[in-house]
Amino acid sequence: MMLIRRLIPFWLLLAMLAACASPTPTAAPQSRKLRVLATTTIVGDVVRNVAGDAVELSVLLPVGADPHSFTPTPQDVAKVSEADLVFANGAGLEEFLQALLENAGAADKTVAVSQGISLLQGEAHSHSAEEEHATEEQAQQPMPTTETSDAGEHDHDHEHEHAAGDPHTWFDPNLVMIWVQNIATTLSEKDPQNASSYQKNAEAYTAQLRELDQWIRQQVETIPAENRLLVTDHKSFAYFAERYGFTQVGAVLPSFSTLAEPSAQELAALEDAIRQLGVKAIFVGTTVNPNLAQRIAQDTGVQLVTLYTGSLSEADGPANTYLNFMRYNVNAIVEALK
């Protein structure tokens, strides 16, 4: 009994020491993993390849969501607010983003993975067919702002061109290599303890992207040059076309955004071009309403081919990673055009 009485103070002392050694709530953010939020499934997959298991990664948009037309919920505001970092495509792709960041007070922790890419320019689209041209200074802006492309504020005539330029940079793996370095640099600055791991992962993934680029070139060579004509649901394949030697004949929605509405004259002109140039297929993304594209395909007698454009597939689908996404699309394009 005396032994037990003597041991009690000893165990109480140990408990007190353990309590003193436990981290306080204010110190917790330093010891836990970074909470990282990616806007789209495509951005999320690239971040995952760079970050590995060193961060807690979640993706804002669900599989199959159109990043142009996505409407965030109050729960999404909370997700953004709780994140340490938010990786977005940028360049005006996520048209909902500016208002969401303001509501969540998170503008200072958001990084555009497309930062540093010289964006391709295009003509602004509206029912009045007015043209707008972005400046080079706007093209270099990392995130959509009120000076570059208003997120959530659009003219009533459905003028939806992005002032910064074409945001669909992921259709060129060489540009995704820039994404990778932006992600690795940001993670390393925010979490220096894992910087070497982030850089090593970035180098390994960049090597895979180089292999993907070479594979795409080999596949495209099997398509006769005169058949390398692209008609898509909206203007999303310019980077792919420029890199791999395709001609963009036109788009059902002649805009960088799926929120645009074409005029009857524009649709008629597209059908004439398809017939005159002998276009073999119209390519439509899984995140876009295919009705207009189906009508044009029926009118012109060409096939309608489904691609993955703004989102990866489900985990058990054929485009569940960015690398598989590109391989699936290239295989579908080659099969339709050769």
What does it look like?
- With 338 residues, the protein is of the alpha/beta class.
- The protein folds into two domains: 33-125 and 134-188, Nitrogenase molybdenum iron protein domain (Rossmann fold, 3-Layer(aba) Sandwich); 224-337, 3-Layer(aba) Sandwich (Rossmann fold), CATH 3.40.50.1980.
- The protein contains twelve helices and eight strands.
- It has helices at 2-21, 28-31, 41-51, 74-82, 97-104, 136-139, 173-190, 195-220, 238-244, 264-277, 291-300, 322-337, and strands at 34-38, 55-59, 85-88, 110-112, 229-234, 247-253, 281-285, 303-307.
- A four-stranded parallel β-sheet has the order 2-1-3-4, with helices on both faces. It has a two-stranded parallel ribbon with strand order 5-6.
- Strand 7 (281-285), helix 11 and strand 8 form a beta-alpha-beta unit.
- Helix 4 (74-82) packs across helix 5 and helix 7 (173-190) runs antiparallel to helix 8 (195-220).
- The chain is globular.
- 44% of the residues are buried.
